[in-house]
From TrEMBL, chain A:
It comes from the Bacteria. This is GerKA2 spore germination GerA type complex. GO terms for biological process: spore germination. It is found in: Cell membrane; Membrane. One of its GO terms (cellular component) is plasma membrane. The chain crosses the membrane at residues 273-294, 315-334, 404-426, 438-463. Its main location: membrane. InterPro entries: Spore_Ger (IPR004995), UPF0353/GerABKA_families (IPR050768). Keywords: Membrane, Transmembrane, Transmembrane helix. It is a multi-pass membrane protein. The keyword Kinase does not apply. Belongs to the GerABKA family.
Length: 515, 370
């Protein structure tokens, strides 16, 4: 109730501005109508809709169909169709064929996708790269699938590098991406369902799931969430991710974003739902838990002991990258007694001529590290390596020699920075890097007590996070049946269950008695 | 089995909360207070008290499980009627509230005495209560999840600490085995029933578990666990400090100052402190949640979660009243100790008697046979 009062107060002071918007009622009315049999009227309608000739790449070609002895025109967007195909398989037969026949399908070798009459529908098709044929006296419009959009070919995954396993990654073409998934799951139950999210740009997204696995309630929940989006355009999947998340302001991600088809497939097989979107070289995995974000596909591709080794390594890296700097501050500022005397002397010796308190030192170096990191990302690739050298040389060596930073701090920062690279998921990585700063402040404020207080509060926060009603630490706590693939994974033969928090239709992945 | 209702506690989470709540008594001033009473037989008290408290607890749980998914207060009101029931509930709430204030102050005292000598008590105490209030506001399910995440490390560190302590200790210190005498020990265990008073309060959580059977199972698992834990910790402290245990305010924290890992790392206490304080946070978070639950039930407040921050503030203020740690340990705490145990025991027995006289047991039997 308190919140409501606040919200209404804010509303009183912050009125939404009134814009003098132009009405497009005429166009909307037009879109709802059907085309007519009159050649000239159709031509005029579409010319006005597509602003021809202002719109240079929208092509209209008028001609006479010899076989039918009728006038006709085709309409397409030149930059989105395969012009060769249009010329060879659609135009030429229509113009050259002389044998009288009543049906368009008999004249044209190119398969007719469908016929339609609704103007809005035709517009939607043309804007996605389809060729439309209008014939005088015919109340139908013929639609040909001639889309050919330019794009990247399938390349190696850049951001999620692994040693073993498939190397290919998603690209910007939806058809390719679906193909990558389909070739890994050869099953008729794999559903690729299309949805349109926005009205203006008509960004289409695809939901991919296995019909006989996925929980219908979950599927409906995700669809509802997608339908709730009310935006003119959502350009990219990463923006869609922010629309879909329950807590878009939270530090921790609740949706997994991956560019690896093999990873996507492994989640589909467990009963998750994958979202793909045209023009985005990645996919979203819903729902995602902490474990999904923390694991890497490599863990499973390597043999069990090796896979677990890198898991434990990653777990240690997580702790080091979060706590190294803050622990250093807490120990050196509040609990000096904990350091062995010899080491303490070494610390004191190196810090002797440094004029800053250690928290300032740490913050300076953390900032410098983040700067190098960000600069290394943004810098054009030919001078990329230079950044590393400059960063290491100037910030490391020189800062120490100038007595601005003590060497110990460099070690601490280098260790925590290095460790943070081991967390491969981009969002998780950010979450950890940012929370590191919070921990530094907590440790500076109250030493180890402040640190522990923040850890516990952080844990309280994390366990209360949910991704589409799935708790963040499920299936560890609250416990669900699962393959027990958490910190340590079993050998694949023992991983018998799909994650119970998804409530899949088929719980058991491999029956013990069926082999 | 697969379905999990939202907001329900799993048995693992419940056991973790309970073990952290009750077991952490071994890490504060309880062992030394026991030692003041019965010297080197202090380790027996947790076992004997547990034996004595078993009867009321068993009867209480038996009675409560008659009423499906009802918590302690609902059962009391149902059995005793509106007015007497309210009064009994109020007494329970008052005792537990006082207990929380005093106990949380004890923890703050420990933090101040051993780790942050120059920080004002109020700052340490305020931060402590703020974290607990934040956690409690997240709901009991999340408290359970965090305690399940932490319990393993807490117990492991406690175990390592105790193991390292044995290097400094002398097993002969437990002789003579009965300390001041059998009768004295038995009297001491009667006086210390409050060791397990938390189990009484935990019956408030019955509706938050998936079934009352899980509650029963979880309670007994935690019961056995905490007996072993408290007793083992006390044995180690007795062996380590011998006669001087009674004079040491907080044996656990003194003990971890003694131990070292080889000659290279002479002081380990910070590591143990971190884990201990995390356990302590959980303990009071759960406590705070339960007392908000009680308060909400008493005064018919449905959204009792909003009560948590104000309650935490009130407890903070009450806990800040005593001037010195000595006041807390010896005067204030002994009030709680003297009242909580006997009162809760008596209430448990009366509840059972009332149910028996009212024929609730027969009623339930008939229902089952139908």
């Amino acid at each position: 109730m308190k919140k409501n009062i606040l919200v209404s107060l804010i509303k009183i002071f912050n009125k939404e501005p009134q814009f003098n918007e132009q009405s497009n009622a005429k166009i909307i009315y037009l879109k709802e109508r059907d085309i007519t049999g009159h050649y000239d009227q159709n031509l005029a309608t579409f010319k006005s809709i597509f602003s021809i000739p202002k719109n240079t790449d929208v092509k209209i070609r008028e001609f006479t169909i010899r076989a039918l002895k009728r006038r006709a025109f085709i309409l397409y967007i030149g930059t989105m169709v395969d012009s060769e195909k249009v010329q060879q398989s659609i135009l030429r037969p229509l113009i050259e064929n002389e044998r009288p026949t009543g049906k368009i399908q008999d004249i044209i070798s190119f398969p007719v996708e469908k016929t339609t009459t609704n103007i809005g529908d035709i517009i939607n098709n043309i804007t996605s790269g389809i060729t439309a044929l209008f014939i005088d006296g015919d109340r139908q419009c013929y639609i040909f699938e001639t889309t050919q959009v330019q794009g990247r070919s399938i390349e190696k995954s850049d951001n999620e590098v692994i040693v073993r396993g498939a190397k290919e990654s998603f690209n910007e073409r939806l058809a390719d991406n679906i193909g990558l998934i389909r070739k890994k799951i050869k099953n008729e139950n794999l559903i690729v369902e299309g949805l349109v999210v926005t009205k203006r740009s008509r960004n289409d997204i695809l939901l991919v799931y296995e019909k006989d696995l996925v929980n219908d309630e979950l599927l409906q929940k995700i669809k509802d969430r997608i339908h709730m989006i009310d935006a003119d355009s959502v350009i990219d999947l990463s923006i869609l991710e922010q629309y879909l998340e329950e807590r878009p302001r939270s530090l921790f991600p609740t949706i997994l974003n991956t560019e690896r088809p093999d990873r996507a497939v492994s989640f589909i097989e467990e009963g998750h739902i994958i979202l793909l979107m045209s023009n985005s070289p990645n996919c979203l995995v819903l729902p995602a838990t902490f474990w999904a974000l923390f694991h890497s596909p490599e863990d499973h591709y390597l043999r069990t002991p090796y896979g677990n080794f890198i898991r434990i390594l990653r777990f240690i890296a997580l702790f080091i990258s979060v706590f190294a700097s803050s622990f250093y501050i807490a120990i050196t500022n509040y609990h000096v007694g904990m350091i062995p005397p010899d080491l303490l002397m070494a610390f004191a010796g190196t810090r002797e001529r440094v004029p800053f308190p250690s928290i300032i030192e740490i913050l300076m170096m953390e900032l410098a590290f983040e700067l190098i990191r960000e600069a290394g990302l943004r810098v054009p690739s030919p001078i990329g390596p230079t950044i590393g050298i400059v960063g290491a040389l100037i910030l490391g060596q020189a800062a120490v020699q100038a007595n601005v930073i003590s060497p110990i701090v460099i070690i601490v920062i280098a260790l925590s920075g290095l460790s943070s690279f081991i967390i491969s998921d981009v969002s998780m990585n950010f979450a950890i890097r940012i929370s590191r700063f919070l921990f530094i402040f907590a440790a500076g404020f109250m030493g180890i007590y402040g640190l522990a207080a923040l850890v516990v509060s952080g844990l309280f926060y994390l366990v209360s996070l949910k991704s589409f009603e799935v708790p963040y630490f499920a299936p560890m706590t609250p416990r669900f049946f699962s393959a027990k693939d958490l910190i340590i994974r079993h050998v694949p033969i023992k991983e018998r269950f799909r994650p119970g928090y998804l409530k899949p239709k088929d719980m058991v992945k491999q029956r013990g008695d069926s082999n | 089995m697969m379905k999990q209702q939202p907001g329900k506690l799993g048995i693992r989470e419940y056991v973790s909360i309970t073990v952290l709540m009750v077991g952490s008594k071994a890490s504060e001033d309880t062992p030394s207070l026991l030692s003041i009473q019965v010297q080197n037989a202090a380790w027996m008290i947790p076992i004997l008290s547990a034996g004595l408290f078993f009867i009321p607890l068993f009867l209480l749980i038996k009675t409560i499980s008659l009423f499906h998914e009802k918590d302690l207060f609902s059962v009391i009101e149902k059995l005793f009627g509106k007015y007497i029931g309210f009064f009994v509930c109020l007494v329970i709430f008052a005792i537990s509230s006082f207990g929380i204030s005093v106990d949380s102050r004890t923890y703050t005292n420990i933090i101040r005495a051993y780790y942050f000598n120059t920080t004002p008590v109020l700052v340490l105490y305020g931060l402590f209560m703020a974290v607990c209030a934040y956690g409690a506001k997240r709901g009991i399910r999340n408290v359970g999840s965090v305690s399940y995440l932490l319990i393993f490390y807490t117990l492991l560190s406690l175990f390592i600490a105790l193991l390292l302590c044995t290097r400094e200790s002398n097993i002969q210190a437990i002789m003579p085995i009965w300390g001041p005498g059998k009768w004295e020990v038995l009297k001491g265990s009667l006086k210390n029933l409050s060791l397990y008073a938390d189990f009484f309060l935990l019956t408030m959580l019955v509706p938050y578990l998936r079934s009352s059977k899980e509650f029963r199972r979880g309670t007994w698992i935690a019961y056995i666990f905490t007996i072993i834990l408290t007793s083992a910790a006390t044995i180690v402290f007795v062996c380590m400090f011998d006669q001087s245990l009674g004079g040491i305010g907080y044996p656990f924290h003194s003990a971890i100052r003694y131990i070292s890992l080889g000659s290279y790392i002479p002081n380990l206490e910070i590591i143990f402190f971190v884990i201990w304080i995390m356990g302590a946070f959980i303990r009071f978070t759960a406590f705070l949640y339960i007392s908000a639950l009680m308060f909400g039930h008493l005064f018919k407040i449905k959204d009792f979660e909003y009560l948590i921050p104000p309650l935490a503030a009130v407890y903070l203020l009450i806990g800040a009243i005593p001037e010195t740690p000595i006041d807390v340990s010896l005067e204030w705490k002994s009030i709680v100790r003297m009242t909580a145990g006997p009162v809760f025991t008596a209430i448990s027995l009366i509840i059972w008697l009332a149910a028996l006289l009212k024929g609730e047991f027969k009623h339930a039997e008939n229902k089952n046979s139908m």
